Amino acid sequence: MGKDMGKDLNKISRSIANSSGFPLQIRIAHDANSTSNWEVFLEEHPWHSNETGSEGFIDLVVRDQNHAVQAMVIECKRVRDTAWVFLIPKVKQTKDPRIERSHVRLWFSSHCHVKWNEFGWSDCQANPFTYESKFCAIQGQESGRRNLLERTAFDLIESVEALAWQERKLQEGNGGNLFLFERRYTPVIITTAELRVSFFDPSSISSHDGTLPNDTSFEVVPYIRFRKSLTSNFGSSIGKSIQEAYQTSERTVFVVNSESWIDFLEKWEIRR
């Protein structure tokens, strides 16, 4: 093989590998295993939802070696030269929208003695504190349709639920010896996109063309809570209003810039 042909082969092969996103996933796994407290629990794990029929592969599941009940279900998203812009409007109840949040809604599985005490999404507090938003603008993606982040978050939430059911069935089928079991699943999207936030008064938006004012400022953040109704299946909501069903369907997904991944991991703590 000629020298130039070898160079072309390497260049093309590297481009194919990089476009897959697998190198980022491998690096994230390496970084988790390099910490003193965390380790990769599962990698490229298949999941299937009996409820929706959806299926796929979970990129990574990492768990705390000291508190194995804590697990993060991770989807890696490599994007090129782009930013994800999160909008945080000021609401009546909040004097200052620049308030970092500790509240989250995560999945809890807990079995004690003869029954499952918890098996579903539940509210709690968690570090690190971050801003929280339900609006994310991505260049080139239309409003009103699921953008890359929303599609990824929907699939990630489904994969968390499918994983929880997989683990529950395995635990229940373990010779009938299930006594104590606990797991806390946190959905995390790790991306190479720069994460930016903007705080503004809704009345400052132009009613003529629907745009933010020219003096709108933006801030780069290492990670953020993306909280939204991330399921179209409200389940059994007899006796509930559509508003209550919507609130029940809200989920929290952490979006983390890849360069801040280890910092996020080292600061992680769930408080109940």
Describe, in short, the structure shown.
With about 270 residues, the protein is α/β, with parallel strands linked by helices. It has 5 helices and 14 strands.
Walkthrough of the structure:
The chain is globular, with a radius of gyration of 21 Å. Strands 1, 2, 3, 5, 6, 7, 9, 12, 13 and 14 form a ten-stranded mixed beta sheet that branches. A four-stranded mixed beta sheet has the order 8-4-10-11, covered by helices on one side. The protein is of the alpha/beta class. 26% of the residues lie in helices and 40% in strands. The model has no long low-confidence stretch (mean pLDDT 88).
Q: Number of domains in the coordinates?
A: 1
Strand content: 35-45%
Uncertain runs: none
Q: Termini separation (Å)?
A: 62 Å
Share in helix: 25-40%
Structural class: alpha/beta
Task: Supply Rg.
Answer: 21 Å
The count of helical stretches stands at 5
**Topology as H/E string?**
HHEEEEEEEEHEEEEHEHE
- Mean pLDDT level: 88
Tell me, what's the shape? globular
Sheet with the most strands, sense and barrel status = 10 strands, mixed
Number of strands: 14
